[in-house]
Specification:
Blueprint: E1 13-16, E2 19-22, H1 26-35, E3 40-44, E4 51-52, E5 62-66, H2 75-80, E6 83-86, H3 98-114
Parallel strand pairs: 3-5, 3-6, 4-6
Antiparallel strand pairs: 1-2
């Protein structure tokens, strides 16, 4: 088996287990938020203080912050966010796939913005 060439390292990616994966770096998160002042950073997480996404006002500039499916967001990233929102679930399942959760939240933001 030939060894694969590792991609170049930068602030966004790290070589982990043969795949380029996005780093969950708190410093990078802060850098991105500093570039766009006025944005609300909203964490999507299973947390006691989380509000239902349908009760949150997504009409302003918003950065949705979602973690990995296995581990969610780091405590440092959650603490850096302005709000924590949750997609309430019924039954024994407590969360959605991260791509589905992102789509649900983005759809709600578009719905709210189109309704004024």
């Amino acid at each position: 088996m030939q060894s694969q060439e590792k991609p170049p390292y930068d602030t966004h990616f790290a070589w982990i287990g043969g795949e380029a994966k996005v780093k969950a770096l708190v410093e990078r998160f802060y850098d991105l938020m500093d570039l766009e002042p006025g944005y609300a950073a909203d964490a999507a997480a299973l947390a006691p203080e989380a509000r239902s996404y349908t009760e949150y006002d997504f009409r302003g500039p918003t950065a949705l912050v979602l973690g990995t499916e296995a581990d969610g967001l780091t405590p440092q990233v959650r603490a850096a966010c302005d709000e924590t929102v949750i997609i309430p679930m019924m039954g024994r399942i407590d969360s959605l796939n991260v791509s589905v959760a992102g789509a649900v939240l983005a759809f709600e933001a578009v719905r709210q913005r189109s309704n004024g």
